[in-house]
Specification:
It is a single chain. By secondary structure, the chain is of the alpha+beta class. The chain contains three helices and five strands. Strands 1-2-3-5-4 form a five-stranded antiparallel β-sheet, with helices on one face. The protein binds guanosine-5'-monophosphate and zinc ion. The site of zinc ion has 6 residues, from helix 1.
């Protein structure tokens, strides 16, 4: 997808600090971390937001969640973490390529992001 920041990161056109990658998923550190561990778990298909998830592309979503479990373990988040997906303007989504924020490494407050 032209002009999509996360598609460019997936294509290697923009650098990122990668923490996990497979055929379906790329995960990298957020450039503006909101917690000691703040990883963006991103499907390697241009799904604009949660509204666009359907039976054809939902394998990418399940692969993202499988990756969350692996990344959380690798990042030492055994005492817990939070996963957030912002959708649309009112949800606070700023990059229109579906992604899941994995936050941890501290006792999180009631509100985050
Ligand atoms: P959203 O607000 O759409 O849920 O989350 C977008 C996230 O992408 C933000 O937390 C923001 O800090 C992060 N972000 C924006 N641009 C870049 C970038 O170029 N590289 C990385 N690693 N993260 C980015
Ligand atoms: Zn994209």
């Amino acid at each position: 997808m032209d002009n999509c920041l996360f598609c460019k990161i997936i294509a290697g056109e923009i650098p990122s600090t990668k923490v996990f990658e497979n055929e379906y998923v790329l995960a990298f550190r957020d450039i503006n971390p909101q917690a000691p561990v703040h990883v963006l778990v991103v499907p390697k298909a241009h799904i604009p937001c949660m509204d666009a998830v359907n039976a054809e592309n939902s394998v990418y979503v399940s692969k993202c969640f499988e990756a969350v479990a692996e990344i959380a373990a690798a990042e030492g988040l055994g005492s817990g973490y939070r996963v957030i997906c912002n959708c649309g303007e009112d949800g606070g989504q700023t990059v229109m390529h579906l992604h899941f924020h994995l936050l941890g490494g501290v006792k999180l407050g009631e509100k985050m992001l």
